[in-house]
Amino acid sequence: MRTPLRTGVLVSGRGSNLQMFIDLAQKGELPIELVAVGSDQAGAQALARARSAGIPVRVFAPADYPSPQAREESLLTWLKERQMELLLLAGYMRILGEGFIQRAGFPILNIHPSLLPAFPGLHAQRQALAYGVKVSGCTVHFVDQGLDSGPIILQETVPVLPEDTEETLSARILTVEHRLYPEAVRLLAAGRLERSGRRVRVAERSR
Ligand code: GRF
Prior knowledge:
Layout: E1 5-11, H1 16-26, E2 32-39, H2 45-52, E3 57-59, H3 68-81, E4 86-89, H4 98-104, E5 108-112, H5 124-131, E6 135-142, E7 152-159, H6 166-189, E8 193-196, E9 199-202
Parallel strand pairs: 1-2, 1-4, 2-3, 4-5
Antiparallel strand pairs: 5-6, 6-7, 8-9
Helix pairs in contact: 1-6
5-O-phosphono-beta-D-ribofuranosylamine binds next to helix 1, strand 5 and helix 6.
């Protein structure tokens, strides 16, 4: 795979994962070039981070489009115009439609703050606490048309402590997210992710 990969990031909120990608790319520690940041939320803090890093930003607000399909069409056109080679979802709060995924032609990754398939969807850390699990963690996966349901690339656990709140558990998981997500991107960029159905094998480092 030719690197750096032209990479887009979709965001809806705070953007700490986006900031981690910006920092690593700037330091030359990740073989990606950030060329697009898209959002459904005009006020997302993540957009300010992208703008101050000089990355082209565009907002695709649902209210501006007649249908979700029209919105996704516009998003896909923009990404293709920018010759995307990799798309990273980082706190993007919408499900991408089947048409988008089938026609994208570039890999799409997401990070989720639980050990999937446990606790997909919103408030994963709150769900984990409510269920009473003793370990949780995060998952980097390929995106399919379902909700946090695509083939799993990497997972890492964190303990759930008796005194945990949603905030303390989220913070513990987020620290791991910021390490695990770039690791998955590195493996992808190095051509070391081999997909076979739902299973993703990490190939040995080529000599
Ligand atoms: C992260 O916990 C991520 O796993 C989830 O949404 C959160 C985004 O945080 N998908 P941030 O916007 O990257 O700070």
